Amino acid sequence: MSDTVSFSEVQGTFIYESRDECFDARLVTDDSDKKARDSPYVIAAMPAFNEELYIAKTILGAEALVDRVVVVDDGSTDETANIAERMGATVIRHPENGGYGAALKTIFEVARAMDVDVLVILDSDGQHTPRDIGQVLDPVLRNKADVVIGSRFLDNAPRDHIPSYRKVGMKVLDTATALASGMQVSDTQSGFRAYGRQAIDAVHLNGSGMSAGSEILIQISDHNLRIAEVPIHVRYDIEETSTEHPVKHGLLVLYDIAALIGYRRPLLAFGIPGASCVILAMALGFWAFSDYYATTRFSFVSSMGSAMFLILGLLLMSVGLILNYLVVFVKDQSKEAAEST
Predict the structure, then answer these.
(1) What band does 14 get if pLDDT is binned at 50, 70 and 90?
(2) Which end of the chain has the lower number of beta carbons within 10 A, N or C?
(3) What stretches of 166-211 adopt beta strand conformation (E)?
(4) How much is the pLDDT for 63?
(5) Distance, CA of 31 to CA of 113 (rounded, Å)
(6) Using CA atoms, how far apart are residues 159 and 108, in angstroms rounded to an integer?
(7) Which DSSP string do the residues of 232-265 spell out, in sequence order?
(8) If residue 280 lies in a helix (H) or strand (E), which one and from where to where?
(9) How far is residue 201's CA from residue 66's CA, in Å, rounded to a whole number?
(10) Are 96 and 70 in contact (CB under 8 A)?
(11) How many whole angstroms separate alpha carbon 193 and alpha carbon 209?
């Protein structure tokens, strides 16, 4: 599938059409704007779905700190797109709601088409403070990092207002993302990030769900890009900032990350459960034989459980080994193909 996109201009906005057609960057940017400057071309982009209450304030705060504001309206049914357009933002409309990951995918494709040097992404629901854009951008602009994450959990970041259940849930997701990417960061689920040119070119999202933030970090890790974190302020006192229950949202993200771990690290995803099953089988078998020698009665339940867990464990470990071989083979083939071009 092509990584390019196409848009058609309709009433001042740009309607997302297809990923199989060529994208004319002139639809979303004026080339003279970039040619006339010596400094990096910086845009702020934000996914938006029914955010008419907060989109204007977010755009107003961002536009003073960047060269252009881009809003990806992900199928909103309210006045989000119209308000963003009137505020002077470049608006990209999805005909229907595709999800957070779909909006991010469009943002990166548009950034590449616009030949952007630095991209900063923030939420449009009022939780992120636009005045933090400067400190999020700073390490990228000074060439100290390729990706900067606005973290809620650094030592000097204010976090007393973060609900406890969110802290626990995000810690679980951080751990899962670290297993998938091999990258240790304090806030893997932060949507407030800045990306340099290399990172913009490297990120090609596949999923459309809320796990897109983790998928981006995995791809950043694959390309050995530099990553930094800075503290940010996040508001949790705003009503209707999410369309899903936080527990459901967290479980869906965790499910997607688990799928990524299974694809990228099959030995970890299948080997550890397999080894656990084998250990459990040995324990049940030991208990069954010990009980038999002590009472001369054979425990059918324990012995059958031992056999079933042993078979399951060996099967999982075998699948992990086979999938790991295939992953290594595909990576080697991709690396050879890239070197030959």
Answers:
(1) low
(2) C
(3) 193-195
(4) 93
(5) 11
(6) 30
(7) --B----TT--SS-HHHHHHHHHHHHHHHHHHH-
(8) helix 272-295
(9) 20
(10) no
(11) 18
Cα-based angle 247, 152, 175 (whole degrees, multiple of 5): 55
Side-chain-facing half-sphere of 246: CA atoms under 13 Å: 14
Quick: pLDDT tens for 168-215.
777 888 777 777 777 888 888 899 999 999 999 999 988 767 778 888
Q: Which strand (E) or helix (H) includes residue 83?
A: helix 80-86
The 10s digit of each residue's pLDDT in 295-308 is 878 788 888 999 99
pTM higher than 0.70: yes
3-class SS at 37? coil
User: Beta strand pairing status for 193-195 and 227-231?
Assistant: unpaired
Contacts of 273 (CB under 8 A, 6+ apart): 313, 316
Residue 191 CA to residue 213 CA, distance in Å, equals: 7
3-state DSSP percent of the chain in helix, strand and coil, to 5 = 50, 15, 35
Q: Report residue 147 as tokens.
A: 């990706």
Rounded to whole angstroms, how far apart are CA atoms 122 and 130?
8
Model confidence at 334: pLDDT above 70: no
pLDDT score recorded for residue 206 = 83
End-to-end CA distance of the chain: 19
CA distance to 1, 29, 152, 284, 334, per residue, from 12 (Å)? 28, 13, 36, 69, 41
Distance, CA of 263 to CA of 335 (rounded, Å): 18
Distance CA 175, CA 170 (A): 9
Q: Across 68-218, where does the E strand assignment appear? A: 68-74, 90-94, 118-121, 147-151, 193-195
Q: Which two tokens mark 183? A: 């990258």
288-322 burial: b if 16+ Cβ within 10 Å, else e:
beeeeeeeeeebeebbebbeebbebbeebbebbee
